[in-house]
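Q: Hi! First time doing this. I have a protein sequence and I read that you can turn it into a structure. Is that right? Here it is:
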Amino acid sequence: MERSLGIDLGTNSIGLNLREDDIFSWYGVYTFKKGVGEGKSGEFSYAAERTKHRSSRRLYNARRYRKWETLKVLIENSFCPLSEENFSKWKHYKKGIDRIYPINDISFQQWIKLDFDNNGVPDYSSPYQLRRLLINDKLDLSVPENKFKIGRALYHFAQRRGFKSSRKSGANEKTAVYKGSNETKTIGRNEYENLIIEKGSLGAAFAFLEDNSIRVRNRYTLRSDYQNELQKILEFQQIENKDFKENVEKAIFFQRPLRSQKGLIGK
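A: Yes, that's right. Below is the predicted 3D structure, encoded as structure tokens:
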């Protein structure tokens, strides 16, 4: 007796039949879910959806760890009023307790809100106004309030830090233009590059735009502009601590290297 098994592979089913000589002695079908989902716009890949959400989680975590590392350096060097105890509770997870954001740390909340004289009113309308001051007015660093101002500006760097071009040639970064929304008057990358040169830094350029009631949100900014402004602030304010300068720059601009994919290669 000659036997043969027939298999029909589909996107969400497998059909089988067993043939003995000229007779189909058995047949059946096994159905399962498709490897794609159904949406209003048609089918979509589950794998692509997982990848998108995983990328979002990693980006969020990278930003969070970067801000924590920056705060650690600032706290250790008295540029931030947050206590080490409250910082530790926020940064480190404990089973059954979770992380505790220092919402009750009044001095830290005032620091975040740019209220350095603790009168309940922000001293600057935005961090850009503070960043402009730091490249134009030399502060007395023996006054704790002034060190807190520098620390707040550096923390703002960690919150933003700009885009690093994936191109091999940095010159190509200069040709990028941000188009923005139709509701907001926007300035092309080349145009406010000249404004950066004129005003002295990216922060000062954006402070100038705010003075003229031009929104600065969602603009294409280069990481190199942040790095140049950071060095300018540290030099102008005569911060000589080499370890602090190296550690805070590393904390703000650290980028995790790409993970090795060699483990995905089959035998």
